[in-house]
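Researcher: Next sequence.
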Amino acid sequence: MTPDQIALLTQLLQQVKNEHLLSPNMPLSIWKALHQVVPIPAVEVIVTRTGKDFLLTYRSDADWDGWHIPGGYMLYRESISEACERIANKELGIALTFERVIDAFMWPDHPTSSALSLVCVCQTSEKPKDGRWFTEIHSKMIPHHGEFLRTFLATSSF
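Model: Next structure:
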């Protein structure tokens, strides 16, 4: 890149911030372009009631057909616990209590990005609007999610 191109890109990125076009308001084309060059943190929310069970939701789309841990990308200046709470409320319709981060995982094979997953354990006593409770890892899971659950089950201290 030339110095002028670098200055222009810097100016445009500042404009994105000044115009409040940060996630979730960022245009998808900008978000995808950034995601290809900058790791963007996500939370994988292991929801448990007892420390021995976990909630999985079923997903069927172009990227995956099977069970997975609920999760999503963090927003600008959002804390880990706030991201977990937002995602649980949006995807599951429940409130939860953030307990801890048990792993950080850089996806080597993510289909669209350089994603960094923070694997979080959260507790709830509420009934989710979606998903099913498990005590064993389902065979039809996103492979990395199975690893996250093995870590959770091995380190659970409830």
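Model: DSSP finds four helices and seven strands in the chain. The longest helix spans residues 3-18.
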